[in-house]
Structure formats: C-alpha cells, structure tokens
C-alpha cells in the first residue's frame, strides 16, 4: 500500500524521461542512427533544442536535481515532447504551475454540451465561456432571464446585459453584489487569458463607457464564484430566488455550464408558471 506523498521533483524527472523515450526520431525528421542510439526515443540534446533550453537544464531536470519549471518552460517542454492535453496538465501539476491557456477561447458551444443544456429542461440552464458570452441556452432560462434570440450576438454577454440592457439593469434585487461578483470573476478570467484580445477589448469598452464598471474594476477584487444565490424581480411572476451552480467540463474547460434551481417553494411555483406559459 502506498503511504508516501508524491515527490514531485522525482516524479517530474521520471515523467520527462518516459515521455522523451517514447518519441520516434523519424517523427521529427531525425535519422535513427547518426550514431548508435543506446536508448529509445530522442536524445536529451534533441529535446533541449526543440524546447529552446540548454542540454544541462534537461539533464538536471531528468536527474531530479531540484530545478523549478516556469510556466513558459513547461509549455515549451510540453510542445517539444508532443504531450497530449492530459499529459500537459500533469506536467504543469508536477511543476506546480497553472497551465497556460494555449487554445483559443471558445466562441461556440461544443455540440455535446449544447445538447446537454437542452436535456437539462425543465431546469433553467445555459453555457458560457470565460468572458460571460452566452453560447447556448434552453427555453426555461430564456423565459426566466431574456430571450437571447432577440439579441445580436455581440450583446449575448451576461456582463453587457447587467450593465447596458434596460430590462436587466433592475432585474436583480441585489444588483450591486451581482455586478461586483461578475466583475471580480471577469478580472480572474482576464489574468488567466492574457492573450484574449476580445476580452481585453470588452473590458476597455466597459471601463470607458460605464462608470459603475470602472469604479468596481478599479477595486481589483478577484473571485471565481462557482455557486450561490440570486434573487430576481420577474415582470410576469414576481420575485424568484434561485440557487445557481457553475460546472466546468473536463473536455472543454473554457466552457461553463450554469444551472438554476428554485431556492424555495414560492420560487419553484413561479418557475412552474413560467415553464407552463
């Protein structure tokens, strides 16, 4: 039975060696026998050249001599060793670094997730990306919040709706808390996706055009809210309190599945009336 905790330095060394040794030199256009290869896979100097680091650096890493990988070097090694997404995440975990977001942010819903949003009916549900762009939704959440089909795609963004849409501005009973938490979440996303120019442009637009956003953004609060409660003033059924849950699929971590459940019997009754309309 294993009782020790993971020695991340030694595990990282062994992992890098194993990934290097499984590679075929032919896949890199390298001759298999410039000199006789005594071990399988690529040589350390070949990995060093592909990753843009020194041979001594690779040697010390593979010998577990206490080097700490930066996120940039971990990414370079992941590409040099042609790591699969799960292997890349494992490398970053061993290096005690957060993975860089190498993939482009999602702008459309992954089809299986879009189907799941529909299948979750009668629970109100929607799919977003890290920018709060609404990628997919079911009819229940459209009845509860807004018929997103009536909006141009550029306005299908929860933060834009909270700040700019006249029907949503007074929709939340505790509006400032909702906006404050949304901005804190957006700041965390801004740090996690520094190359996302669309997100940077969106923040610049809000900062320049909305005093409330500019004021709260300047406070530099950071918070990723995975669950909580919101109380809404619905024009047709009155006050509705919901508990929300945010789930991140392993296969599509840039997409966030949001579900709402009634927080009390009165709210459940209100949601039932909405769904029956």
From TrEMBL:
Signal peptide: none annotated. GO terms for molecular function: DNA binding. It holds the Pfam family HTH_31. InterPro entries: Cro/C1-type_HTH, Lambda_DNA-bd_dom_sf, MLTR_LBD. Residues 34-88 form the HTH cro/C1-type domain. PROSITE patterns: HTH_CROC1. It comes from the Bacteria. CDD domains: HTH_XRE. This is Transcriptional regulator with XRE-family HTH domain.
